[in-house]
Amino acid sequence: MATHPTMMRAAYYERQGPAHEVLRVGEMPVPEPAPDEVRVRVAVSGIHVGDVGKRQGYWGSTMAYPRVVPHGDGAGVIDAVGADVDTARVGQRVWVYLAQSYRPFGTAAEYTVVPGHHAVELPEGAGFDQGALLGIAGITGHRAVFAGGPVDGLTVIVTAPLGGVGRAATAVARRGGATVIATVRHAEQVDAALSAGAHHVVGLYDGDVVEQIKEIAPEGVDRIAETDLAGNIEADLEVLKYNGAIATYATGDANAPLPYWTLATKNIAVHFLSNDDFPEPANESAAADLTAAVAAGDLRYPIAARFPLDRIADAQDAAEATGAKGRVVIDL
């Protein structure tokens, strides 16, 4: 009979602050799965700026636990299951999401436990590194597109299409039947945005953005997946149809005023998105669609840097700096 280790290496912090001041790596007990949970032997831990924000205390976040093992996303192999979980899942390759959402133990460790439905079978041919990057960014991107329902036949703008959220939004919007218009800051990003799935690319460097969008969609666009609500709201309202929608997951100025009456008279819906608290059916729909996109090769994340667990502080610092250049992972 195979035996499992009782101790594991894990990264953790016990107070919020700069990465090199608060992150530590040490040993702690291997967690046991509770009923309806699975334990995953982590192969790759993905880093998202949301993980960095929780550690830094951004957005007013506080520590709900005295010790936190960071990172919500990861991928690996199920090695144990709790009660009420099919034992046939042992040995399954999976990607996990929300590992550290309202829970103290994320994926920056050799093992993690998550609810069984938050461990999604990873398609054959998809590497652990791709699976480890789907969770926060992928599900947010999916929600940014589908918060208002299906998009088949609609026109969708995706801002920042080469970021973690934007790549997922672009892929799932196209797969959902939308015409996708991507906006980029630099000319050298055009080909990459087209490769990510955009039908049209508008350059912020190339004259009046509103006019460029109106040339592509003279009747207006239906939805916008927005990475900077404050910075882009005026242009968004110029190109949105009546009864259109904005789904926003970030902003340059958290206290900027909104043009209420313009939003109201055009009946524009604004969806404010925070990944930890999406409805569970939305998470499950996103997980299914993202897995299918990865299996088909329609969603791929470039890897900007890889680090061992011992260098988690360097890895988190790098995740703040890479942006559209790619994602950062930790190899366990």
Automatic annotation (TrEMBL):
Keywords: NADP. Residues 19-330 form the Enoyl reductase (ER) domain. CDD domains: zeta_crystallin (cd08253). It holds the Pfam family ADH_N. Gene3D superfamilies: Medium-chain alcohol dehydrogenases, catalytic domain, NAD(P)-binding Rossmann-like Domain. InterPro entries: ADH-like_C (IPR013149), ADH-like_N (IPR013154), ER (IPR020843), GroES-like_sf (IPR011032), NAD(P)-bd_dom_sf (IPR036291), Zinc-ADH_QOR/CCCR (IPR051603). PANTHER family: QUINONE OXIDOREDUCTASE. This is Alcohol dehydrogenase.
